[in-house]
Amino acid sequence: MEIWDLLHQAAPIMLRGAGYTLLFALSSMLGGLVLGFVLAVARIVPWKFVHWPAAVYVSLMRGTPLLVQIFVVYYGLPSVGIEFSPLMAGVLTLSLNAGAYLSESLRGAILGVTRGQWSASYSLGLTYPQTLRYVVVPQAVRIAVPSMSNTLISLIKDTSLVSVITVTELMLSTKEIIAVTFRPLPLYIAAAMVYWFLSICFEALQHRLEKKLERAHQT
């Protein structure tokens, strides 16, 4: 079978898998952003009973392999009565992992806002939550966009790991085709090109968002 014929036949299956890859990446990014913001705020508040659990969680998730985390959620939790579908387990684990990394990006961005902004807000009578919401967070988001975009691009590649729990995303779709055609090299290269294309698209979106936020900041 010629390579082009092989790729033509494999394209529908691989594109369907790429759709699941996008679903995992975007869903996990959304969940990770929510968790990351909560963790970032918990890391900067002065209350130790809030700060330390958040710090331990971030250290744990960043210090252990994502593959091990997937196994714990999908294969380990059922032993204590908590069971998820492969799709839910994949999204949940990626969200929990991404939240730890995004929290560090957001925390650094929040701390990057000058103390004068905080002082000016307090002098206007704003409370701590109001200062965060209306003054600090909008500036921090602009600062954190590049690092958060890098996390999303990493998530696109990390979705390949959920193939180990039988989720038919791009990597598992490619493996299924290889099991039938016995042509691993062109198909793995094609899968790599799809991941690369998705990453390039998100890099372009990142640059556009950065420019838009920069123009909004200057007006």
From TrEMBL:
Coiled coil: none annotated. It is a multi-pass membrane protein. CDD domains: TM_PBP2 (cd06261). The keyword Iron does not apply. Residues 18-206 form the ABC transmembrane type-1 domain. It is found in: Cell inner membrane; Cell membrane. Pfam families: BPD_transp_1. This is ABC transporter permease.
